[in-house]
Amino acid sequence: MKKLLLIAATMVSVVAANAQCQASFTYTNAANVFSFSDTSTDSIGTVQAWLWQFGDNTAPSTQQNPQHTYAACGYYAVTLSIFTTSLCNSTFTDTVFVSQGALPSFAFSVDTTNGDVTFNGSPASPALIYNWNFGDGDSSAVQNPVHTYDSSGAYIACLTIADTAGYCTYTVCDTVVVYIAPANCSVTWTNMNTGGQQIFTPQPIDLNWTYTWDYGDGSPIDQAIIGTHTYTVTGTYTVCLTVMDTTNGCTSQFCDTVSVAISCNATWTNQSIIAGQQTFTATPLNLGWTYTWDYGDASPLGNGFISTHTYAAAGTYTVCLTIYDSATTCTSQWCDTVQVVFPSNCPVTFTNTFLAGNMTFTPTPFNPLNTYVWDFGDASAPYTGLLANHTYAAPGTYTVCFTMTTFQGCTDTFCDTVIVAGVGYTDYEGGIVGVVLYPNPASHVISVSYTITDNSDVTLEILDVSGRVVVTRREGNLQPGMHRDEISMEEFADGSYILLLRTETGQSRIPFMKN
């Protein structure tokens, strides 16, 4: 009966919460860029999450005040759902009219062996009708047609797009130069991607031919059999290879597109052969990148693709690799922990359990004849005893060290970090707003969306129920605005965890379940 009353009370509380908040928004339109402004209210709490659906089957947005561009003219139902700190949710829908869709454009590539031209029209939308005029009397109604010209020449190809409701129509034209080469010197190429650098290999290779490469980014023409080129901007480029066989008076050209994604994301691996010495190797190797290492022990920074460092003491260290690519001004940082172990005749470790603000430490080996001295890492007095119980005054990350001396006179010290977490969800000042973790409970992957108001390094940590950090991820020098990270939960045991998100000036905690 008490459970039924509790459920009824909860339902009444939820109904009251839903009545106290109201989702709403306004919008403006400038050259087909719609700017939406959240005007939602909550009489008790504040809005902590937003979900916008723009009515055109595009991805939703979780920003508070997003912008959106529609591909086609017409009427669209825009829906805003809000979620507040007082457990209230509300949804509001309004209709917008788009009088100007996205302007059309198209790219094409020419196959010189048979006159085939591959056209790619944009924008892509199921709400658009496509009509091609290839300039030779033929037409097509698909978005990305392949058309065969019967002879070499220059053709005016035009793409007309219209929305299915008939609100607007646009046309764009371009000159397509078709050259069908004689079969005896036709050529193609393949490419290999090594980061921003592309290596192009022609097929076939004939030492009597002249090979000329146009990489499609405005760079100078390259005359080489095997072309090597470094792109500095992410994008899709049309690369054309022209070959000339002066012996037979034959010229052939082959063009195709290549997609380039410029990124300097890197990780590292480590290997220890000599006690206390760690060799770190970055992945991948790029000769145009600068590699900087922070070994986590207050020693001078290291550099280089491979770096070797000797630690003075055993322990767990957080090692951070910072990558900088001067060609693309790309900067990235990746951090992970490394365990440094020195041989000992009496090696020791400890485990810890965190409950209601109290941390309990248990040493291994557990022997009443040994002497144990504990340093809890919070400037409190050392404690001597087999089992240690300590209450920390504030949440945080502490380095705990204990020294064991056996009755035979062998001494060893072991240090590790522990996390003292607060209870429940706390949103601190410091520029963190709108933190959302989903799904909760999680099974495979959690997605974390958060918004920061200032430039800051951001650290995401997952803590288990004992307060131990089991996952650390760092993002360097993030700009103000919304950011999103995904963390795999495949290797985690079922149970309760806490996500700790920290900036340079604040932190937030969100408890969640893994099942």
Number of domains: 6
- How are the strands of the largest sheet arranged? 36-43-42-39-40
Low-confidence stretches: 1-17, 423-428
Structural class: mainly beta
Q: What CATH first level of the largest domain would be assigned?
A: Mainly Beta
Kindly identify the CATH topology of the largest domain.
Immunoglobulin-like
Biggest sheet: strands, sense, closure?
5 strands, antiparallel
Distance between the termini: 30 Å
Computed over alpha carbons, the radius of gyration is 31 Å
Looking at how many chains there are and whether they match, the oligomeric state comes to single chain
Q: Shape, please?
A: flat
Question: What's the CATH H-level superfamily name of the largest domain?
Answer: Immunoglobulins
Which CATH-level-2 architecture of the largest domain?
A: Sandwich
Give the total of beta strands: 43
Overall residue-averaged pLDDT value: 83
Plain-language structure description:
- It is a single chain.
- The chain is mostly beta strands.
- The protein has six domains: 2-98, Immunoglobulin-like (Sandwich), CATH 2.60.40.10; 105-178, Immunoglobulins (Immunoglobulin-like, Sandwich); 183-260, Immunoglobulin-like, CATH 2.60.40; 267-340, Sandwich (Immunoglobulin-like), CATH 2.60.40.10; 349-420, Immunoglobulins (Immunoglobulin-like, Sandwich), CATH 2.60.40.10; 426-514, Macroglobulin (MG2) domain (Immunoglobulin-like, Sandwich), CATH 2.60.40.1930.
- It is built from one helix and 43 strands.
- The chain has a five-stranded antiparallel beta sheet, with no helix packed on it.
- A hairpin with a 5-residue loop joins strand 39 and strand 40.
